Amino acid sequence: MVNLGVNIGGLNLKNPVLTASGTFGYGEEFADFVDLNRLGGFIIKGTTINHREGNPYPRMAETPSGMLNAVGLQNKGVDYFIENIYPRIKDVDSHVIVNVSGATIDDYVAVCEKLSPLDKINAIEVNISCPNVKQGGMAFGTTCEGAAQVARAVRNAFAKTVIIKLSPNVTDITEIARAVEAEGADAVSLINTLLGMAIDVERQRPYLSTITGGLSGPAVRPVAVRMVWQVAKAVNIPVIGLGGIMNGRDAIEFMLAGASAIQVGTANFIDPSVTMKIIDYMDEYCLRHGIKDINEIIGMINN
Amino acid sequence: MKKYILDLTIVENRRIHELYTLLILTTSDGSILPEMKPGQFVQVAVDGSKTTFLRRPISINNVDRENNHLWLLVRNAGEGTRALMALKPGDLLNVVLPLGNSFSMPKNQSDLVLLAGGGVGVAPMLYWGKRLKEEGYMPKFLIGARSAKDVLQLAEFEKIGEVYVSTEDGSMGEKGLVTTNTVLDTDINKIYCCGPAPMMKAIANVAKAKSIDCEVSLENMMACGLGACLCCVENTVKGNVCVCTEGPVFNINELTW
Question: Is B231 on the interface with A (CB under 8 A)?
């Protein structure tokens, strides 16, 4: 028997496999393809204090080994989540983590305060890295002061596990990671999408209504692995790795680089059952390598 | 409706036009194809190229229950669909299905219904026309194309009901766009339409002007097809909604056209 259980800042996951915010809806959308109870956890899409319509269509462009998106945090707001979605998913035997987003510090705090009383929500992931909104989002995540400010406010407003999701669109991601660690963040997750752009050369205009968007998929994976490796060495809190994980091999790559858990994002669009295959692969990989506990491989390349 | 991921086997790749092919698929294990409704679509995996990363949404053209066949009409729209057009009998195609909503039945059994399709937009009208006929309706079809050679699946439609054609060059049926076809001057209670956005908008305007109930099937660009990525949104009277789950079929009253 291989132990796949890992701990993320006080949160015990039955395995390291989480689903990335904005790629797995509220979990229910994937119930025909995935046994939600088998996941380490799933992360609810970016939730804000008020309803948001998001950006105009078109919001997506396919690119080599990836895609650009510019959804812009479309969601029905935290109250809608609590009243309509939470009752339907609160009995899942897996962690439900809510991704929290805001335009102001007060917005983040207000969402945290509404989520705090919910028994099933033992962790939040704080989005300071969305490249597709004009206010807040990535603006907080690209300076140490901004990131620290959000981390501090959220830390005070939410007593359970706080994960800060970092932007790769910075000069030195380790500085940002250290800044949020110093404010009491329990873990960091990285990377959010890389700011990108694509142009329809026949129509001579950008594909996205917002011109620029966030790049995801295997195209970003080597960048993500590098950043996870750097951050894992720079901080003492757990790192959750994501960015273009398409299969079990890719997931193991992030763990070897230093990730204690991983998130599967864009791959859910291509194979909605991929998370189950990744969990199976982790088990098989550990058996094949004589590893009894998957924690042994976290950051193994540094040994 | 329960959704499935299936490896389907290509039975036949029937090239019906230089730009279009009809893929006929069946299950690879002999099982019966899942329930699928007219108007729904499937998401097919395209292997083998780094530039075709996402699945491709394709309308359900027909479900032939007698032979356990699924028909997909594929238009050459780029590298992904070209890979689909090159499939050979016996090849496997990974398909997620069935996705999206479906057309709604006319209100009254006596309603006169018109199914309008342009280009590859005829695809869902075949399956829907067959279903309407089974339900006792007498569907009429209106097909728009550039030229006579671009009128797809004409023989199939003629088996179900009267077919009216508009071609831009006048080589078949009436010359001009579908919106000027004289069938629109006859008594019609309901129009179902699928085709390029300008055609659907023009038909919607005709329907509004004549107070005819009208449903259109949209084909916004999609990633997941499951309502998770929020990429394929259409602006409706309820705000931005996913075409893949709230659609692809919308009553024109729900749209902000």
Answer: yes
CATH 2.10.240.10 at B218-257, yes or no: yes
SS (H, E, C) A272-296: CCHHHHHHHHHHHHHHHCCCCEHHH
Q: What residue numbers bound the domain in which A34 lies?
A: 6-54+72-199+216-302
CB-CB neighbors (< 8 A) of A56 in chain B: 235
Architecture of the structural domain at B103-216: 3-Layer(aba) Sandwich (3.40)
Name the percent of chain A in helix, strand, coil, to the closest 5: 35, 20, 40
Gap between the Cα atoms of B43 and B64, Å rounded: 19
CATH number, residue A139: 3.20.20.70
Interval A126-156: pLDDT, tens: 999 877 777 766 789 999 999 999 999 999 9
- Are A60 and B229 in contact (CB < 8 Å)? yes
Q: What is the ipTM of this complex?
A: 0.94
In a domain, A238, yes or no: yes
Instruction: Tell me the pairing of strands B190-194 and B174-175.
Output: unpaired
Annotation says A130 is catalytic: yes
A54, B96: Cβ pair inside 8 Å?
no
Name the domain count of chain A.
1
User: What's the pTM?
Assistant: 0.96
Contacts of B96 in chain A (CB under 8 A): 272
Nearest CA in chain B to A22: B229
Chain A residues whose C-beta sits inside 8 Å of any chain B C-beta: 22-25, 29-30, 32-33, 45, 53-54, 56-60, 62-67, 69, 71, 74, 217, 266, 268-273
Cross-chain residue pair A67–B55, CB shorter than 8 Å: no
pLDDT digits (tens, 9 = 90+) for A168-222: 999 999 999 999 999 999 999 999 999 999 999 999 999 999 999 999 999 999 9
Widest CA span in chain B: 52
Pick the CATH number of B4-99 from 3.30.565.10, 3.40.50.300, 2.40.30.10, 3.40.50.2300: 2.40.30.10
